Amino acid sequence: MDVNVLPPLGVVLLALILQITGALEPFDLLYDNGVEAFSRGDYASVVRYMEEALASFSRVRQTKIRCRLKCEDQHRIDSNINTDLFFFDSVLRRAACLNACIEERVGTASMHAVSEDVIQDFHRRIPYNYLQLAYRKVEK
């Protein structure tokens, strides 16, 4: 068996931990695995990784939206606040609520800082380009 085809041990361990805990796998890791598979010519893996990356990205995005709305409702900033102390107290409570909500729903591993390049690739819909090419190669 070709050793270059096997995923690195760290990737395997992270996937195993995420599977056991039920946490969401980070979309940037899935995307990187898909790009790697594309460069190896493993198009079936490209399809799997890119589809999972897109689903993970969407779930993280939707979770952030839901949590933001939930925490806005729980920690309203009153327009009649007359001191900075009450204002900043509300802002900090809302931020803590948001962080706790997101971590609870998507897991700690998916909350790490994702590079701006990867985020831009998702906004420019680059994973769909990889998917389209991989689908064509798998069909042949």
Quick summary of this structure?
This protein is mainly alpha-helical and 140 residues long.
Commentary on this structure:
The structure is a single chain. With 140 residues, the protein is mostly helical. It has six helices and no strands. Helix 2 (27-40) runs antiparallel to helix 3, helix 3 (43-74) runs antiparallel to helix 4 and helix 3 (43-74) packs antiparallel against helix 6. The longest helix is centred in the middle third of the chain and has 32 residues, at 43-74. The two termini are 24 Å apart. The model is unreliable at 1-6 and 17-21 (pLDDT under 50).
N-end to C-end Cα span:
24 Å
Continuous helix count: 6
**Number of DSSP strands?**
0
Give the overall shape.
elongated
Q: What is the alpha-carbon Rg in Å? A: 19 Å
Summarize the helix and strand pattern as letters.
Answer: HHHHHH
The stretches of 5 or more residues where confidence is low (pLDDT under 50) are 1-6, 17-21
Q: Helix- and strand-based class?
A: mainly alpha
Instruction: Give the fraction of residues assigned to helices.
Output: over 70%
Provide the β-strand percentage band: under 5%
Provide mean pLDDT, rounded.
Answer: 82
Main sheet specs: none
Task: Give the topology, please.
Blueprint: H1 9-21, H2 27-40, H3 43-74, H4 84-106, H5 116-123, H6 126-139
Helix pairs in contact: 2-3, 3-4, 3-6
Notable characteristics:
single chain, disordered N terminus, mainly alpha, 140 residues, 6 helices
